[in-house]
Amino acid sequence: MNYNLKKNSYLLIVSLSFLIINLFLILGLASFERIIYIIFFYHVSAAWLSYFSFGVSLIGHLLYLKQKKMNWSNLGKNSIIVGVFFVAFTLITGSLWFNATSGSYNNIYWQWSDARQTTTLILFFSYVAYLIFRNFIEEREKKAKLSAILGIVFFPTVPLSYLSAILFTSLHPLINPNPGEPGNIYWDSIKLFILFFNLIAMTLLFIYLIRELKELDIAKEKLQEILYIKMEEGR
Amino acid sequence: MSELILDITTISISYVLFWLIIIILILYPKLSKRKIERRLKRLNQSK
After folding, report:
1. How far is A128 from chain B (nearest CA, A)?
2. Domain that holds residue A82
3. pLDDT by residue, tens only, chain A of 235 residues
4. How many domains would you assign to chain A?
5. Fewer Cβ atoms within 10 Å of its own Cβ: the N or the C terminal residue of chain A?
6. Domain count, chain B
């Protein structure tokens, strides 16, 4: 256990160092027509991490239904906890970006007709509902089974959110390595490298957080066991 | 206010929020685990 904890601390140090180095890379190497474009590095990274988290949660839930092991159910739940935080950040930074670029700070943060914004909000509320629902069920097996079903049912909101900017009407720009395409943001290889570097840092952070949350679940289960034994002794 | 200042303010808010989320996610399992460990210690002592 100590070995694992030590290994996990290294993972945290590496991921946080990468994130700090990344800021210097952005400020030192990338050039922008407006400084607000920096928001994209964090907005895209957070969106990537949230989609990745929900993808991992889907795998966790499917494996739980197949193998009935509580570890998989906990992996599904923990991935959703991380994903919900980062999807909230994505929504906030998306709104701030929208306000900055749609007529330069006219206090317009939200457009319901924008497919990407609306579908991402649906995605956020779906997974918040999952966490609330899971918290309400007392019985362990029932909790794992029903939340696995719910986690799988809600997953289509992830591809829907991702594809919404391509399939439906959306003001959301897409990052494009080829210049000159209207409605898209052209990023050269340096910016794409910095973005990729940030994605690696975020993925390492995700692994760290999942391991820590797993340790927390183990501690919770141990406490439950001892409380159960105490209750039995008291009878 | 000029556009540049508003851009810097927006970026700063986003950056602080980004780190705030990371700090919350790092501290939540650590603090909860510590709380559980303290409770387990108390339960073991009362045996």
Report:
1. 16
2. 2-29+37-234
3. 455 557 788 999 999 999 999 999 988 887 777 888 889 899 999 999 999 999 999 999 999 999 999 999 999 999 999 999 999 999 999 999 888 887 778 788 888 888 889 999 999 999 999 999 999 998 888 999 999 999 999 999 999 998 988 887 777 777 666 666 666 677 778 888 999 999 999 999 999 999 999 999 999 999 988 888 888 887 6
4. 1
5. C
6. 1
Chain B nearest-CA residue for A83:
B25
Listed in order, strand segments (DSSP E) in A86-222 are 174-176, 184-186
Question: Does the beta-carbon distance from B40 to A92 stay under 8 Å?
Answer: no
A7 touching B (Cβ < 8 Å): no
Of A67, A64, A225, the closest CA to residue A134 belongs to A64
**Sequence-distant (≥ 6) Cβ neighbours of residue A80 within 8 angstroms:** A53, A54, A57, A127, A130, A131, A151
Q: Which residues pair with A186 in a beta bridge?
A: A176
Give the range of the structural domain holding residue B21, as residue numbers without chain letter.
1-40
B-proximal residues of A, 126-185, CB under 8 Å: none
B45 located within any domain: no
* Chain B touched by A230 (CB under 8 Å): yes
